[in-house]
Automatic annotation (TrEMBL):
Superkingdom, natural source: Bacteria
Annotated organism of origin: Rhizobium loti (Mesorhizobium loti)
Residue span(s) of domain EAL: 23-273
Residues that span the membrane, as ranges: none
Protein name: Diguanylate cyclase (GGDEF)-like protein
Section of the entire sequence shown: 535 to 809 of 811
Amino acid sequence: AKMEGRGTCRSFEPGMDARLQERRQLESELVLGVKKEQFVLHYQPLHDAKTSQLTGFEALVRWSHPRLGLLPPSEFIQLAEETGVIDALGEWILRRACTDAAKWPLPVKVAVNLSPAQFKQQGLSLQVAAALAASELLPSRLELEITESVLLANNENTLNTLHGLRDLGISIAMDDFGTGYSSLSYLRSFPFNRIKIDRSFVSLMCESSESRAIVKAVAELGTTLGMTTTAEGVETEDQYRLVRENGCTDVQGWFFGRPMPASELHALFEQPEAL
Ligand code: C2E
Ligand code: CA
Ligand code: CA
Ligand code: CA
């Protein structure tokens, strides 16, 4: 038994070492990558649920890694948060998204994800104001998406930051609603313009009446509180019909379009009605 135990241990440790080494390497590559601007933003279309008209795009970051190819955010955002690189990366994302959107032929919105660490930065409002000024993007065209974890602290700072951002004339969305420590009191206490209902509810709507009931309740609550509600992850026509019937005002998902490079958006601008 002792031998087995040791054997298990031995085969485990090299794995750990390798993973740790890989993490360290990725960490230093990430710092360099931000310096060298090795990132690209892909844009996923947002549509009005009733008319199916294009209303904007969500910016989704990818890392064009010199060794590993195009990496999704799941491969590096957490690392960026843990190492503090997210501040510089987040500012780059914000500026790039504003600059791209300012060039679009239609005055639709651009939605930018903010990580909790970014949200806690002292000069966030100033940073956003500077990005708007540099790009000459109208504030009404920028929306920031934050997750519930930001609100856990539920203190005065959080509220001040949110009001500071709203005062710039931009809008704020609560992302992934229903997944975290969702609390309805957040919706009452914080000045959101939009609730984004997490894909996990939307994807179950066809088979689960409970999921339909939840989506319907959140959409109604949003409407009552003067917020728009976006259904995330709409992949099929049936899901589109169900989220529309249950009161969601906006839709996003593969049924309408996958995230794509900025250079490929022109097709959507030329035929905004085409689905
Ligand atoms: P999110 O903000 O909830 O973004 C939506 C994610 O769902 C995106 O994944 C998108 O590609 C994916 N998605 C959209 N429609 C569908 C669909 O119909 N079906 C399925 N299965 N998936 C769909 P992505 O691009 O891999 O991003 C994952 C997460 O990474 C984002 O979730 C967001 O939390 C984070 N992220 C992405 N870009 C940024 C960024 O610029 N800054 C920060 N801080 N986080 C980001
Ligand atoms: Ca988002
Ligand atoms: Ca989301
Ligand atoms: Ca998500």
